[in-house]
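Troubleshooting: if your tokenizer reports a length mismatch, compare your output against this known-good record of 367 residues.
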Amino acid sequence: MTIYTCTNCHRPYPDTGTPHRCLHCGGVFSLRGELAYTPPDSAQPGLWRYRASFGLPDSAEAIHLGEGNTPLVAGAAFGKRLAFKLEYLNPTGSYKDRGSAPLLSFLRTRGVTSAIEDSSGNAGASFAAYAARAAIAARVFVPDSASGPKRAQIEAYGAELVSILGPRSEAALAVQRAAEGGETYASHAYMPFGLPGIATIAYELYEQLGNQAPGCVIAPVGHGSLLLGIARGFAALQAAGLIQRLPVLIGVQARACAPLWALSTQGPAGLAWVTEGQTLAEGVRVHQPVRGDELLRAVQASGGQFLAVDEGEIQPARDALARAGLFVEPTSAIVWAGLGQLSTLANFADLPGPIALILSGSGLKAP
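Known-good structure output:
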């Protein structure tokens, strides 16, 4: 059974209300233990085939726009077999839809009629779309630097767009002030109900690779929910006896804002010089990752690591993927730059394959 508890005091998520942090200690809610993997229900659409693992009441309405079942495209580079997971083909153009679907379904069970969110773009667009589907009025706080296509997409779904001057962190502060005033904060970073939805990426990879796990997974990392959800999914498959070992997890950040890379390579002292610098990879410009501690443990347990790519590597990586027919936004392209960086390491030959690269957002969203 999937249960959500506070990571600090271990109290369960309350039976009423929609707090984004623990009411007793201010801790972050997450999954308790491993996800309860169950075989997919073929009668359900997309990722809702795995509804039994979401921890939602049986009566919860499935808020669905066609998310999940994204293609897996084979490739090869640096002497390794690759598998590109095309998460940018989800309904709103990013993997965020996997988290938004169960989250908005949960909010409906709690009687929510309006909610707020903050985002650099993709999460806000996804939240706006699924809120529209769930008949929940949405307001989205974004930094003024958020790309034009993402801002237009948010407003097209009928959400109110609130533009905040300054970096991504200022939008996060603004939305939390609104939440303190009593509004429902449907945070993709804080609310844990999207994690089982993101975990379905792991289940699909397992199925698409012929009922086996990839040897390695490379994903962009901001708050950490994407790679953490994938890690949780593979852990659930292992607990169910379907795979013997976990894939090696590689998280990639932009060097302009790379707190997890700094912490994992330099220790706590490394955080002192981490900046929230400008980067083309706006989706991972997160100075204080909400799920950083959990993700650090998961990556370490897998034998993986974090990488930081220089700004000058991002556009060439995007162009290289586009020339292979994969049109992604710069945030997604950092996984290709990360793979190139991995290929120069002495132990690259020992990295197990195939290597799955998570292409998280569409190139149509970037100017």
